[in-house]
Amino acid sequence: MLLGSLLGDACVWREKPTFNSYIKMDHSATQKEYVWWKYEMIKNIVRTPPRECAVSGHSFGTGFRACRFSTRSLPCITELHELVGKEKRITRAWLDQIDHPIALATWLMDDGCCWKNSLNGYCIKFCTGNRTLDELETLQGWMMEWLDSDRIGIYIPTKFPNKTELKICNDQTVRTFENYVRPYIIPSMEYKLPPVWREGCINRSQRGNVNYNRYR
Questions:
Q1: CA–CA separation, 50 and 48 (whole Å)
Q2: Which residue segments constitute the domains of the chain, with CATH numbers given?
Q3: How far is residue 106's CA from residue 104's CA, in Å, rounded to a whole number?
């Protein structure tokens, strides 16, 4: 889950070279159920539960509120920091550490979305930001191996090259991806899957009874 979060919105920090690193989870307060899901999975390495707070700045609207928490500074997080680096540049060494589909599910819930295409099928899109072409091709190759498909596309807008995307637009490949991630998508994030497939996500009535230990 941590490796998938780092593919998305999570940040890894080290205050000083002699200190251990920590990971910061930070999402909109409208996604607090998701933040608490992450917390429940790793609360043994977190000192303070998630909290809501007001956030200001030119990139946030008036009244914007965030829900966030951080792990403790630990040697195991320092290892992750050394693996992904301060700038979180994608490498094959990083991706090869991911051996569970919960990382894909977390990445989808962080940075993914779905939409209906013109052929009445569905596409999955990941917003990959300012990734370089080398990073995108590394991600693309890794996803092709996971999904056993070459139908993974890279999109780099000419006018906005810092808003890159990775896309899955083939119906069968989307279905394969969905089969991997469906068991780990929480109710508040079901909208990130095609609607006809949402019934297989974590059932709302079971939300309070999820055994998070099974994901470790």
A1: 7
A2: 2-87 (3.10.28.10), 102-193 (3.10.28.10)
A3: 5
> Contact at 8 Å (CB) between 77 and 20?
yes
Collapsed DSSP state (helix, strand, coil) of residue 68 = strand
Q: What is the pLDDT of residue 61?
A: 57
pTM for the predicted model, two decimal places: 0.86
CA distances from 71 to 28, 30, 82, 93, 179 (A): 18, 21, 16, 23, 30
pLDDT at residue number 66: 93
DSSP assignment of 156-177 equals: --SS-TTSEEEEE--HHHHHHH
Q: Looking at residue 133, what DSSP letter applies?
A: H
Query: Is residue 212 a contact partner of residue 182, using CB atoms and an 8 Å limit?
Result: no
Helix 102-111 and helix 171-181: axis angle, to 10°? 110
What does the pLDDT read at residue 121? 82
* Residue segments in the chain with a per-residue pLDDT below the cut of 70: 57-63, 118-120, 196-216
Quote the pLDDT of residue 205.
37
User: CB-based contacts of 1: which residues, under 8 Å, 6+ apart?
Assistant: 38, 41, 42, 102, 103, 106, 215
| Spatial distance between the Cα atoms of 71 and 216, rounded to a whole number of angstroms | 16
Distance CA 77, CA 83 (A): 10
